[in-house]
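Protocol step 4 of 6: structure prediction from sequence.
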Amino acid sequence: MSDKYEFRADRAKNRLYIRLNGFFRGSDVDPAMAELKAVLAELKPGFDTVTDLSKFVPGAPGATAALTRGGEMIKNKGRRNGVRITGGLMTGLMQFQRLLRGVFDEDKTRYAKSMQEAEAMLDSWTEEP
């Protein structure tokens, strides 16, 4: 685990928890991708994600491509729905949205102010018929 990122799987809920913290540099990319890949192996397709961006700051150019690559890894593994915890740092959220716009369907993404709110959203999320 790093102070810049954390990936955790809850196998019982089939959820991926992501925490991004601070400013990503190019040197953070390879270890983060390796950890994400290992944690994704613990989940079944159809998993949900909670991404905590409350302390995320836009990253260096070399690191921004990794966010897209990580999003693609998550999508290809079979992500269903996702909730992003925004906190108050809108610049980080805006970069995250811009980079992942073509990866995830915005209809399958919601926004929360806290972990508790994110969990409640996923627990009550019903799929459209």
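Step 5 (inspection) to follow. The domain at 5-124 is CATH 3.30.750.24 (Transcription Regulator spoIIAA).
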